[in-house]
Design goal:
3-stranded antiparallel beta sheet; 3 helices; hydrolase; EC 3.6.1.-; RppH; hydrolase activity
């Protein structure tokens, strides 16, 4: 069996979608081995980068696949990739045990559409399974307290970098 330290990180993208009032989109996950309680089941849209895919198109694809949102404008990005480890006890459950965590490229986006565009129950026109059971707009400063604790340092950095777009 591969040692935890020798496992690679899964390439991933994350998006902070802000509405016109400066609130961030968050969704409550429907399931997943990373989520260990109901309080910390909220997160911003994120997902894997396919082999050969560039991060920016991946971010737009993942956002659409999870929320049906297409009406956005790019506000900014964090230049470096942010990394987190998952707890060792769930390594065998998450991503079939192939990764020790994720390395994420984060983008800030402004939602420019009508909220009727948002569809988490049949995202992407029903072409993708629902990943969120519910969603809401949340003050940016609250985000680190809603995410699963092992992802909190990444969320703290994302909030620090992107909070200027919420003002």
């Amino acid at each position: 069996m591969t040692r935890f330290e020798d496992l690679p990180y899964r390439p991933c993208v994350g998006v902070m979608v802000l509405n016109r009032d400066g609130l961030a989109f968050i969704g409550r996950r429907t399931e997943g081995p990373e989520h260990v309680d109901d309080v910390h089941a909220w997160q911003m849209p994120q997902g894997g980068v396919d082999p050969g895919e560039d991060p920016w198109p991946a971010a737009l694809r993942e956002l659409y696949e999870e929320t049906s949102i297409r009406s956005v404008e790019k506000l900014g990005e964090i230049e470096e990739w942010l990394t987190y480890d998952i707890p060792r006890e769930i390594v065998g459950q998450a991503w079939k045990g192939k990764y020790r965590g994720q390395t994420q490229k984060w983008y800030a986006l402004r939602f420019t559409g009508d909220e009727r565009e948002i569809d988490i129950l049949t995202p992407g026109g029903g072409a993708h399974p629902a990943e969120f059971a519910e969603w809401r707009w949340e003050p940016v400063d609250n985000l680190p307290g809603l995410i699963i604790p092992f992802k909190r340092p990444v969320y703290e950095r994302v909030v620090a970098e992107f909070s200027r777009f919420a003002r």
